[in-house]
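FORM 7B: Structural annotation worksheet

SECTION A. Query
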Amino acid sequence: MAGYFQSSAEARAYSSAEVFSETKTPLIGRFALPSGNPYAPDSSVPIRSFAVQFSQANGQQWRTGMNSMPVFPVGTPEAFYQLLKAGAPDPATGKPNPANMPAFFAAHPEAAPFLAWVKTAKPSASYATETYNGINAFYLVNAEGKRQAVRWAVVPQSQDAVGETIVDGADFLEKDLVQRLAAGPLRWQLNMTLANPGDVLDDASKPWSGPHTVLNAGTLVVQSSQPQADGDCRDINFDPLILPSGIQASNDPLLAARSAAYASSYLRRAGEVSPLHHAPQESKP
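SECTION B. Predicted structure
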């Protein structure tokens, strides 16, 4: 999909990034399902993903991969690897061992916030009505070099997020997106949540609780969509460590792991693109 970012003035004192000072910045993005099975129906998982590339006039880019879950299940690459192993099929049966996942979560109490979210999460009927969270912490850096830790999210401005129903079909999310865009652009507000003293910055499994200052940094406007197989997003690796001046990564170890995993996933996906077939969807942390 393609569109632009309309900045507000609220983030400009915190970051020197051009994306917050220019009136409009072009963007390209991709919606996806973070499922390991590219042929699973859209209703098979409650998580939706939104990856965006902002292309600044000065040539620098900001890429971010966001998910509808508010926290990550674990805080380290090692624990995430063990989570993937727990859910992998047993070679003897071709199916995951049903005892593995409960055993994993019993050994990882840090997953409690994620599990609490899973209990209430339901597959949405539209990409357009989801809130997408950056999950990891980053730093906004202003012209004087002062850093402010943040987590960001984009919140839909659609008015029909409540009462939506899942329609029949394996790929209803793409059809819904095309129909909505035919009626007009879709918009999300970019919120920057400023960290308070004591907030954990290097563990994406830890939610930030209590009152926080939230900046309205501007509006993402999606104007058009294209199939991934031949669209502009096909050749973009949405690496979360590709950042412009004015935004810096935190010490969260998942960021380096995401960067490496996205590179591997991109190479596999790009190698399988065919004019006659959609590329498999990525599995994203």
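SECTION C. Observations
Residues 196 and 210 are 9 Å apart (CA to CA). The chain has one domain: 2-73+108-272.

SECTION D. Sign-off
Analyst initials: ____
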